[in-house]
Structure formats: C-alpha cells, structure tokens
Amino acid sequence: MSWKGIKNVCGFKEMKNYNLVIRQLLSEFLGSLLYLSLVLSAGIGIKSTNDNEGRRLEHGTATVLIAVANGLAVASIITIFGHVSGAHINPAVTCGAMICKHIKPVKAVCYVVVQIVGGVAGAEIAYLLSSETIRGDLGSIIPYKHLREDQVFGLEFLMTFMLVAVVLSVIDTTRGARGLGSAPLAIGLSITAGICCCSPYTASMNPIRSLGPAVIMNRWDSHLVYWVGPMAGGLVAGLTYRCLLLYHQQTIVLQSSRIDLNRMLDGHRSE
C-alpha cells in the first residue's frame, strides 16, 4: 500500500477539516467532563443520603439510584453532543466505532486523548464541589475483594460488550431506517442495566470512569483491568457487529438479486 493509501486509511486527510475536528474534540472533552462530574457527584450524594431516621440508604436502593443517575446522565450528554461528535465519551465505544469504520484511527486516538483529559477534569470538579466529610474515595471503582482480576475482567468485558453493541446498533443507518426508538435512551438504559447487574462487584464499562477518580485520589487498585476489560469488550463488540452487519448486507443483496432474477424470468415466460 502506498503512503497516500495509508494516510487515507488512517484518516489524516479528514483531520484537515480543522473547524469540524475542533468542534468534535471539544464536544468529547465537554461530554467527558460533564459525565464524570455528574456521575461522581451523584454517587457521593446518594451514598451519603440518610433517611428520616438517620440511617443510610440500603445498598440495593443506592445501587439502583446510582445506575439510573448514570444512565440518565449519559442519555442527556448524547442528546447534547451526539450530533457533533457522536458523544462517545468512552474509549471503548470509540474503539468499537473505529472497528466498524464510523471513525478513522487518527481521529479515534484524538478522541481518546480528550476523553481522558475531560474525565480527569470532571473528577477534579466533583472533588472540589464535594465536602471532605462525605467525599470518601470519590467513587473510585474498586473490585470486590472476593473476586479475582480475571473475574473482574470477564464482568467488565461482558458489560462493555453489551454497551458498545447497543451503541453500534442505534447508529447503524440500515437499522435506523426501520426505527429503533430513542438512541440516547437505549444507550443510557444499557448502562443502567449493566450497573444494576454487576454492582457491587464492578461497574465501570468506561476506562475514563475509573481513571478520573484514580488520578485525583491516587487509588490504583487493580486499575489496569478497568482498561483491558472494557477495551477488549469494545473491540470484540465492534468485530462481532461488523461481521453480522456485513452478513446482513450480503443477505439483502442476495435476496434482491434473486427477486430481480425471478422478475426477469417471469417477464420472459409471459412473452
């Protein structure tokens, strides 16, 4: 492959549209900042909430509230920024989108960089806006003490696979034409479902969700697994969806060819 071909595949050419690229990167930065600041603040507030008798909320109740807050926050951010950058706000989603050719590699790397910076900035905002008495570990994702790292990896892989598969489904124009409802709501609910299913064992599904509070609080317990698990889930989801989509497209083409052939044969018979 020539150098020109490599540049086209990697997406260097589209990066020359500076106005669009800057808007997209700023959207990813602001979306990631909002996401971390909102969900971390929500977690701090919910975990520190007392009932009328001064008792803390039960774990199940707190988990559901945090899951709903996460899902609604993501749905809101996608509604705000989705038309500009796609509102990935998640390196695993960007990875899956790149595999399915929704975004070129160079821009994908830029997305991940600004997502990381925005996530850390959002965690810092949540830190500054919370009281030291209730801040705790700032919502750091820490694996359940009775789980091995390979088990945490498996849970993160499965949850992120589901999330990225949902994202790829709702941005698939061939399926969107038939109507799949609200994309932000579908993505938000997949996050809510993942947190409800896998908390308290683990519930990141997003490397920057783990990285932000880890940087601010300097807590790195099994941190690498919260990158490897979600990124692997996003990668496999992208590969799986791309293969299924290509098969789906080939099936449609084959069926259309058969229909056209039958029409031609019917026409010849009538003559």
UniProtKB/TrEMBL annotation:
A family per Pfam: MIP
Matching InterPro entries: Aquaporin-like (IPR023271), Aquaporin_transptr (IPR034294), MIP (IPR000425)
Signal peptide: none
Coiled-coil regions listed in the entry: none
SUPFAM superfamilies reported for this sequence: Aquaporin-like
Location (main, coarse): membrane
A cellular component annotation (GO) from this entry: plasma membrane
Membrane topology of the entry: Multi-pass membrane protein
A single GO molecular function term of this UniProt record: water channel activity
Transmembrane segments: 21-44, 64-87, 108-129, 152-171, 183-204, 224-247
Keywords linked to the UniProt accession: Membrane, Transmembrane, Transmembrane helix, Transport
Entry's localization field: Membrane
Family: Belongs to the MIP/aquaporin (TC 1.A.8) family.
Protein name (database record): Aquaporin
Organism: Arctia plantaginis
Organism phylogeny: Eukaryota, Metazoa, Ecdysozoa, Arthropoda, Hexapoda
